[in-house]
Amino acid sequence: MVKTKVRIGFAGTPKIAFDHFSKLLEIDNISIEFVLTQPNKASGRGLTQKESLFANQDNKIPVYQPENLNSQSAKDLICSHAIDLMVVVAYGKLIPNWLLAYPKNGCLNVHFSLLPEHRGAAPMQRAIANGDKVSGVSFMKLEEGLDEGPVYEKVVTNIENKDFYEVEDLLLESSINKIGSVIESIQDGLEAQNQDHSKASYAEKIDKDEGKINWHLPSAHIKNKFRAFKKWPQSYFDLKGEKTKILSLDIDTSRTGRPGEVCAFDKQSLDIFCKDGVVSITAVQFPGKKVISSLDFFNSKRDIISKGDLLI
Hints:
By secondary structure, the chain is an alpha/beta fold. The protein has 2 domains: about 5-205, Rossmann fold, CATH 3.40.50; about 210-300, Methionyl-tRNA Fmet Formyltransferase, Chain A, domain 2 (Roll), CATH 3.10.25.10. It has helices spanning about 15-25, 70-80, 95-100, 125-130, 165-185, 220-230, 295-300, and strands spanning about 5-10, 30-35, 40-45, 50, 65, 85-90, 105-110, 120, 135-140, 150-160, 200-205, 235-240, 240-250, 260-265, 270-275, 280-285, 290-295. Strand 15 (about 270-275) and strand 16 form a beta hairpin.
């Protein structure tokens, strides 16, 4: 007996969403009826319109980019499609109540944490910055509260000592390998299980100023934040009024001193004391310049950086 295809709408915006979309296109028993993605946004110095990743796919699936999901025009477009499930991956807009209730089986959201931990906008970054050893993907039913809906399935992944790019790749692979079977199970009647709300934590949106190194923090915290913010906003410190991005660092707890003070500066690294040790910086980038090694850093700045200087 041939199974009836699961008709889904798909809502997502960045590449991590497009990768899920591409995977779902390959699954025979899933039919994507339409895509919701955010409107094109102006970017770059020329403020040119950056076209959606979904705009030129070959399958001629309708792509809608409404400014307001509560507008009558958006409702008319979406409701012209009968769907069993709405799949949401990093869409970037709040799904209104009418759309939560519209699909036969509701809305499935892919969230990159082990709910109820790290609800919110930046679960991967907050998990890494927090020093979590494990994270994962939660396939949850969207409800009105922020990531409070019941969970269909979870996939657990080891993220110890990994940076944002590595964690994103691991969780993406886990998610796209699992999402097809989760959708099929929901269609077959899988019931989602309520979260334990008493154990909830929140992953607030990252602010660009969080990238600035606080030398009063323990070395492990500084390294975790460096890993978490590797894509954006990146870790940096002020050097004589110049914002200096850190591209590579290590830590050493065998030496201690005044937080923010230069411990040593040579061809191998710039070493700065933190709360419980030393942060050794081995590659940097100055505004508008290319990344340079510790050797080039030393050769270009040794006249203005000395042992004992305070970089706060």
